[in-house]
Amino acid sequence: MQQTLDLGVIGNGSFGALIDREARVVWSCLPAFDGDPAFCALLSPRQHEGGDLAVELEDFERSEQHYVTNTALLRTVLHDRHGGAVEVLDFAPRWKQNGRIYRPVSIIRRITPLAGSPRVRVRARPLADWGARVPESTWGSNHMRWLLPGFTLRMTTDVPIRFLREQTWFMLNEPVHQVFAADEPLQRSLSGYVEEAIGRTEAYWREWVRYLSIPLDWQQAVIRSAITLKLCQYEDSGAIIAAMTTSIPEAPQTTRNWDYRYCWLRDAAFVVRALNRLGATRSMEEFLRYIYNIATHDGSLQPLYGIDFAAELEEAEVASLAGYRGMGPVRRGNLAWVQKQHDVYGSVVLASTQLFFDQRLAHPGDAAAFERLEPLGERAWALHDQPDAGLWEFRGRAEVHTYTAAMCWAACDRLAKIATLLGLEARTAYWRERADAIHARVIDRAWRPDASHFSASFDSDYLDASLLLLADIGFLAPDDPRYVATVDAIGRELRRGDALFRYVAPDDFGEPETSFTICTFWYIDALAATGRADEARAMFERLLARRNHLGLLSEDLAFDDGQAWGNFPQTYSHVGLIIAAMRLSRSWQEAS
């Protein structure tokens, strides 16, 4: 069976797992997002079978799959050729308990016969050291244990252990349960625990969704995207990962495949701003806790860090995995940590701004928090006109990117607004003067009157899709003729059908081949902002139709067949969906 990104995601803020259409766990790093992928079948282990957790139905014919409404519980129904059917319910437990969130590193699975006389076999085949070896295992009367690097995985089950060890087919005539977790005996009824966990986890997610400020239109798309973003935050530290996978290529047979299991400050800030707009502000508070832990005395920041605050993320190729559809190399670590990407200062300040203005928060921003942000503004001022790798992380060249300079303006602009709120008149004047100086410099250096558009950098004439954000961050008004002309130029040069390139100029790896999904959402948002809402709505609907069967998105989409490429699920893409939906939706007043 050819691998696809028709996958569902489960998780609970401690880890995540990806599950295919046939209820096979094909990717999960344990005990956290950056750990060893015990379930690594998605990236094709070379030396050993497995790297998966499966329920196989004899004479399998078809399957159907959906999330339990407004939750992160995934339901898969497998049908055989004789009218038999089996339900597989997968989730990671999460609920409020003892004044905190209970979120163990645990996959819970319930397998229930629905019709006929289905015969199944259960296969649990974790691998270790990035698929390089079969881990040592032990077993007892109702459990199996696998000794993984730094983590012992225990499965407690009421499936007969011999059936599990020998992968025996058996008739399923009553529900069976599996709890994969740390190596601790379950001190209570297995079925009782699973049923309680289902109820409490379902209730948690429905309560969380209930308090989202969602738009009237496209509610289910927005809710699914919001839950997916929530699942990508590592709550131990507050870090938000870019995606759960590594090395899913951006296009067929390209070497553009990177490890996204880390916290890019830019991507995380986009996530925070999207969730803030939905009223889910706790992610902002947790992310700022992460920022304060990595903050340096002089305010300098790398583009990305590990979820455990690690600063060095050495990049290496993993020989034991052949890659998605065999399209290697598979990479572990990401060399972008050594790059200079100066827009991160604006990203962090933008993500922090609501902390000062949102009166719902128990601990809003104060003068002390403002003082912690000011060094970031100093760095933004010092670096706004210095070359960097840009948000597209060019590895072979550096320029003064327009988006970078505009984000440095945003850092100074928001600091001025925060200072005004706090009554700090001298600081308001200080930051406003700097913001105005950056603004004037960007207009002078990046506007191309002969071409009637902004350029991607101060010393070039080409376009890139990040220029679409100049209105979103407040650098230009949406009706500014220069912004409208830039949006039009991007539509002419970067759009192909219903999707956009992030740029078309050759980079370190040649010319891009696929559309970058968040750029398409940025374009849709820009169309609406510049008065072309009907066109934007139609394009948005067509893009929504290209999500997978569960409403999830990867990083890239092929222009021709709409096939998903790039790491998955991509937080950037779901941020774009939420922002565009909120821009385009009718108001709730129109429904009443």
Write the layout of secondary structure elements.
Layout: E1 8-11, E2 16-19, E3 25-30, E4 36-39, E5 52-57, E6 60-67, E7 74-80, E8 85-91, E9 95-97, E10 100-102, E11 107-115, E12 119-125, E13 137-139, E14 143-148, E15 151-157, H1 161-165, E16 170-171, E17 176-182, H2 190-210, H3 219-231, E18 233-234, E19 239-240, E20 263-264, H4 265-277, H5 282-294, E21 304-305, E22 316-318, E23 330-332, H6 344-357, H7 367-383, H8 402-421, H9 425-446, E24 447-448, E25 453-454, H10 481-494, E26 495-496, E27 499-500, E28 515-516, H11 517-529, H12 533-544, E29 556-557, E30 564-565, H13 571-584
Antiparallel strand pairs: 1-2, 2-3, 3-4, 5-12, 6-7, 7-8, 8-11, 9-10, 11-17, 12-16, 13-14, 14-15, 15-17, 18-19, 20-21, 22-23, 24-25, 26-27, 28-29, 29-30
Helix pairs in contact: 3-13, 4-5, 4-6, 4-13, 5-6, 6-7, 6-8, 7-8, 8-9, 11-12, 11-13, 12-13
What does this protein structure show overall?
Helix content is 32%, strand content 20%. The protein is built from 13 helices and 30 strands. The mean pLDDT is 95.
